[in-house]
Model the fold of this input.
Amino acid sequence: MNHKGKETFPREVFSRPRSLIDVRSHYCPGCHHGIAHRILAETIDRFDVREKTVGVAPVGCAVLMYDYIDVDFTEAPHGRAPAVATGVKRAHPDRFVFTYQGDGDLAAIGTSEIIHAANRGENITVLFINNTTYGMTGGQMAPTTMLGQKTATSPYGREFRNDGYPIKVAELLATIEGTAYSARVATSTPAQIRKAKEAVRKAFDMQIREVGFSLVEFLSTCPTNWGMKPLDAQKRVLGEISGYFPLGVYKERKQADFV
Amino acid sequence: MKGTAPAPTGTIEIDFERCKACELCVPACPKHCIEMGDRINRQGYVAALFARPLDCTGCALCAESCPDVCIRVWR
Amino acid sequence: MTLAASGIRRELMKGNEAICVGAIAAGCRFYYGYPITPQNDIPEYMAAHLPPIGGMFLQAESEVATINFLLGTSAAGKRVMTSSSGPGISLMQEGLSYMAGMELPAVIVNISRSGPGLGGIAPSQGDYFQAVKGGGHGGYRMPVLAPHSVQEMYSLTMRAFDLSDKYRNPAMILGDAVIGQMKEPFVPTPYLPAVSAEKPWALTGCAGRERRIVKSLYLKDDEIEVHNWKLHRKYAAMQEEEVLYESYCMDGARVVIVAFGTAARVSKTAIQVARREGIPVGMLRPVTLFPFPSREVNEAAGAADAILVIEMNTGQMLEDVRMSTRHHDRIRFLGKPCAIPAPEEILQEIRRLAGEIGARPVRVR
Done:
C-alpha cells in the first residue's frame, strides 16, 4: 500500500502502542476486545507504568490477553480477578494493578468479588467488557443479555419472569461507597472511542492518585454470537443496547476521602 | 467535490495480512477513503483497501476504529 | 537440667495460636481469612499481631475470595497463609487447584470439624481424602502435615512454608479442634529457612527484566500433558524426600497402631498403659499425610501381626494403609466419626487384638 504520501507526511500520528505486543489476536473479526485492548495499552504507555504493572487476566474470550498486553500477568479463576488483584495490590501497593473481565466473569460468577473489592475501595482498576453474552463458550445467556435476546441458552429470547433483567454494573457499583470511579463507555464510533480513552485515563489516574477502586464498563460487540455483521453489531450497541445501558460517568470522586 | 482534486494532508497504511475484513474502518473514515478490496489475505479475509489516498486527511479515525490495530497513520 | 535453667524459652499457648507464631517466625506477613469455628483464634491472633509488625491482615467476604487473595499475594512473591475449617476449605478447592496448576506456594490451615455439610463443630478427621487426594479438580497433590501437639502446630507450620516454597505448591496443615483449642507448653525454636527466599517467577512489574506470566492454562499441542508430568515429578519428589513420621514404642511391637493427629495423641496414652500390661504394641504416626509413609507402613505391616488403623472418621487413611501393603488380613480399623476416641476404647481394642494374635492371653474383666 506504499505510495508517495508516506514520504510526504513523515510524522507518524497513529501506530501500535508499545505495550501492545505485535501479534495477530485470536479475536473474531470486528470484536471490540481489540479496541479495548488497544486503549488499555495506550493508557499504560501514556502513564508510563508498563514496568510497574501487574495485570489479572479473566476467564472468557480475553483469557489469553497476556499474549497481547506486554506486562507481568497472572491468571485468575473465573470471576475471581478482583480478589486476585486484591492479593497482588496488598503485596505491592506501589504497583499498578488492573483486571479485565467480561460480563459472565464479573457480573455473574464474580459478583461477590467485584462488589467487595469496590466496597473495600481496593485501589485497583477494572475494565469490564459487556457484550451481553458468554462469547468464549459459544454465546450463552449472560446476566447482561437483553430482554428478548436469543442466545444458545435462551433460544426463545430472554424473558424476565424466568431469567430476570440485564444487570447494570456501572450504576450498581456507583452506589458503593468505596468506588472512586464508575463509568460506562462504548467503542462503536470514533467519538465514543475518544470518550472511552478519557474514561480509562481517569480510571488509571484514580489508582495512581490512590483515590480508590475504579471501573470502566465497555459496551462491546460480539458479532459472532449475535449472528451479525460487525457493522450491524455496532448499530445494535448504538441503538438497543445503549438505550438500556446508558453511557456516562456514574461516579467520580475528586480525591480520596480517607487518610 | 469530485474533480476538485484536494491535496491530501495525511496518509495511512493498512496491514494487508493482519486485516480481518470486519469493515469497521470503512464508515469511520469521514472522507470515504477506505473500501473493501478484492484480494484474499493468508488468513482468508478479503482485506480493506486504502482506495482514495488523495482524499486522506490523516485524521486517524480509521485506525482508532480498527480492533486489530492494522492501520498506521502519517500526517 | 530443667528447661528454665537451660535458658530455653517456653510458651503456653493454644495450638491455633502456635500456628500463628510459627507462621510469623517463618516470615509470613500476609494472612487472609473468613470466620469459621473452630479456628477463629487464628484470624483473631493475626488481626492483632500482623499490623504492628508491618504485616497485612484482611478479612475476606468468603473463603472463595480468601483463597484468591492468597493466589494474588503468592503470585506477587510473598509468603501468605489462611486458615479455615471443612466447609470453608471446600470453598477454597477451586483456588487450590489453580494454585497447584500455577505452581504458587501458600500455607492453608484446616482446623477440621465434623461433616459432611454443616456437620458440627466436634473434632473430626473427615477431611483426610479432601486434603491428601487433591480436593479440587484436575488432579494435583499438596504436602499435608498433621500435627498432634501444640509444639508441632508451631514447627510444622514453619516447615509447611518451606515445603510450599521449595515445590512452588500449596501446603496444608491438617489439624482438628482438639489440637487447635488445646493449650500446652511449646518451645518456639528459631526458624531456620530450608529454602532460598528468591522467587525468580514472582510478579512485581517488569522493570529491568523480561515480563512474567503466572498461569495454569496450556492450550497448545501437548503443553498441558507436559505440564502435568512436570507437576507429577514434583509430587514424586515429595514422596521420595519429604515423608515424615514418628515411630512410637515400635520396639518388638506385634500390634502396630497407625493414626495421625488427635487420634495418635490419644493412642499414645493407650499404648503406654498397654505396654505396662506387657502388650507389645507401638505406633507408626504419619506426620505427612501426603506424602504418605507407605514404605514404613509396609515394613511395619510385614513385621507385625496386626495393624490397627485409628481415625476420627469411618475409614479414609485406612485406604492408604491398605494400598501400602499386601498384608490386608492384618489390618483392623477403629473409627470414631466426629468424636475423640477414648484411651479406654483404644486400650480395649489393643487388648482384644493382642488376644487374637496370641500376643497375650485374653483377660476377661
